[in-house]
Amino acid sequence: MESPAWGPYERLRPDQIESIRAQTPLAYLPWGALEWHSYHCPIGLDGTQAYGQCLALAMRTGGVVLPPVYIGTDTIKPFKGFGHTIEHSPELVRRLCIEFLDQLVDEGFRVVVIITGHCGGGHTRALGEACQAFQSRRNDARIWLVPSFEPIKDRFPSNHAARGETSFQMLFNPGAVELNRLPADREPTLDEDGVWGADPREASVQEGREMLDLFCERCIPRIIDMLAPFRT
User: Fold this and answer.
1) Roughly how many angstroms between the first and final C-alpha of the chain, as a whole number?
2) Which end of the chain is more exposed for a tag (fewer CB within 10 A), N or C?
C-alpha cells in the first residue's frame, strides 16, 4: 500500500502543500513550552515531544506538520520557581491558538489536530477554550486537542521530566539526555529537581517507541473518522 503524502509545512513548496491538502486536508500543530525539565533534559522537551508525535501520525495519515509552537502558560516557574522557563499568559495562548486555527482553516485544511507536550492544567484549559470558541463559530472544520500522554495514560501516565517524557526525549532527540546530571544519592523529586513521576533513570529508547506506537494506534482511528467527510 502506498504511503500517504505528508510533510513538514515549513519545508514544503506551495505546489507540494496543495497536493497534500487535496488528498488529505489535515494539519498537525505541535504545541510546547520553554520550560525547566530538570537537569538531564533540554528546555524545549515539550515541543520536541509533540513534534515527534505529530510527525509519526502524519507519516501514517498524511497531512502537514507545522513547526512547534513554544508558547506556554501554567509552567513550572510560577508553580515551583524553577528558572530557564518562559511563562506566558493564558490570554496569549488562547489568542494564538485561535489565530492558528483561523489561518489553517482559511488555507483549506479541514481537520486540525493539536498535540500539546506541555500539559499544565491552565495551559490545556486555555487551548481547550480556544478550540471550543473556534468550533462554536465555524462548522467547516474539525479540531482535536490531544495532550501527549492522554491517549496512553492507562499504561504510561502523564509525568514531568520523569521516565515517560525522558523516554520520548531519548527517542525524538537522541543525545540530548544526560542522566548522570541527576542526583546520584537519591531519587529525583518535584520540589528539588522538577521531576514528577517515575525515576527518569528508568527511561529508554525502547519505551519511547512503545509509547509512540500505542499513541498512534489509539489516535489514528479518530483522525481518520474526522477526515472522512472531507476526503475527495
Assistant:
1) 19
2) N
